[in-house]
Amino acid sequence: NAGVTQTPKFQVLKTGQSMTLQCAQDMNHEYMSWYRQDPGMGLRLIHYSVGAGITDQGEVPNGYNVSRSTTEDFPLRLLSAAPSQTSVYFCASMIREHNQPQHFGDGTRLSIL
Amino acid sequence: RKEVEQDPGPFNVPEGATVAFNCTYSNSASQSFFWYRQDCRKEPKLLMSVYSSGNEDGRFTAQLNRASQYISLLIRDSKLSDSATYLCVVNRGKLIFGQGTTLQVKP
Questions:
Q1: pLDDT tens digits for A4-53?
Q2: Sign of dihedral through CA atoms A63, B46, A106, A84?
Q3: Pick from A48, A94, A107: which is nearest to B43 by CB?
């Protein structure tokens, strides 16, 4: 049981490049989400999904796309990377019942030059 | 104004001290509440859920006041290992995090 797996752990991109951050969970959790964390800002919700085929925007969705074709996978796509997207990205999953905790991946440290 | 607000601190306390963190949330539709702990930009980990009746887990006590939309965390007998950032989290169908409160416990 691996929990939540994020890849890659580190990535450097040039401005304008695109890439996909991968997130997979093996706990059959309905809810999955992506956050970014910047110094002094806490975790900000980018996109989330309450089940396969359903996605919705969080607090800071611009510049990011997601899809949820399976329960297990929730990739985050940067369409055209910008320096403002330099951040630490966390993926998380949880059961949708009240008071259930989120399980986080280890994070992806992304730098845009 | 952020939907979930916390005093970022830092709170610098000596070992053995009692320290309290507060959090306010603005959306009255919020359904459940949590405190998470985060060490050195590692992934956040659940510390405890927060219930209206108040709940305790060892040296940690969490309280929720729905009328005032206010959540608190009390840490008694602080240990050096309690040094971390404490994140207030609100679930209203999606989970919203506060910016976190940094605690530094000193010998």
A1: 999 999 999 999 999 999 999 999 999 999 999 998 778 999 999 999 99
A2: positive
A3: A107
DSSP B37-64: EE-TTS--EEEEEE-TT-EEETTEEEEE
The strand pair at B11-14 and B70-75 is best described as unpaired
User: Is there a contact between B57 and B48 (Cβ–Cβ < 8 Å)?
Assistant: yes
Query: Is A89 an 8 Å CB contact of chain B?
Result: no
Among A29, A99, A106, most B C-beta atoms within 10 A, so best to mutate, is A99
Asked if the C-beta of B103 comes within 8 angstroms of chain A's C-beta atoms, the answer is no
What span, in angstroms and rounded, lies between the C-alpha atoms of A71 and A58? 19
A99/B32 CB distance under 8 A: yes
pLDDT digits (tens, 9 = 90+) for B54-74: 899 999 999 999 999 999 999
Element (H, E) at B70: strand B70-75
Residue B89, judged by CB atoms within 10 A of its CB (0-12, 13-18, 19+), counts as buried
The predicted-structure confidence for A56-72, as pLDDT tens digits, reads as follows: 999 999 999 999 999 99
3-state helix, strand, coil in chain B (%, to 5): 5, 55, 40
- The residues, ordered by sequence, that sit 6+ positions from A97 with a Cβ below 8 Å of its Cβ are none
| DSSP conformational letter for A74 | -
